[in-house]
Design brief:
The chain has about 140 residues and is an alpha+beta fold. It has 3 helices and 9 strands. The two termini are about 40 Å apart. The mean pLDDT is about 80.
Length: about 140
């Protein structure tokens, strides 16, 4: 019985270590800057950086990033809608060719909606925090024959 238990535990340890792991984390939080052009009007574009790290086993895997259309930020008093979350076309679907990859993502805030429901300036000011909803699809690399 002891031998069977030892064999099973060794088998589980070997199987668990053979799986690769791809980690995604925010490398740089989204920051907003104003754009002074007539085409965008009263829009503020935010830029953030996402970092993907992987093991040697996952090199060659295909990654596809899908962003939801809307997200929200809050300063615990006021909610602001961030729309058009996206990344560059080349970074929406790519093959992992190195262990660490940095990807820029963008969001847009409409200035006219920031203080729409309140007249109190203290409710608008402050540090805003929020979440960036990203769906990451991982497709394994093709088997070599």
């Amino acid at each position: 019985m002891k031998k069977l238990f030892i064999i099973l535990s060794l088998f589980l340890v070997v199987c668990i270590n053979s799986f690769g792991e791809i980690q995604a984390k925010i490398y740089k939080n989204m920051t907003f800057h104003t754009i002074n052009t007539r085409s965008t009007g009263r829009k503020i574009v935010g830029v953030g950086v996402l970092e993907l790290t992987c093991n040697d086993d996952d090199l060659g895997s295909k990654i596809q990033l899908n962003f939801l259309k809307k997200a929200y930020m809050t300063n615990k008093k006021n909610w602001i809608e961030v729309s058009n979350l996206s990344t560059d076309e080349k970074d929406k679907s790519f093959i992992l060719d190195r262990k660490t990859k940095l990807i820029k993502f963008y969001g847009v805030v409409d200035k006219s909606k920031i203080g729409k429901n309140t007249l109190d300036g203290d409710m608008i000011e402050g540090k805003y925090v929020g979440a960036t909803p990203i769906m990451i699809s991982i497709y394994d690399k093709e088997m070599k024959r």
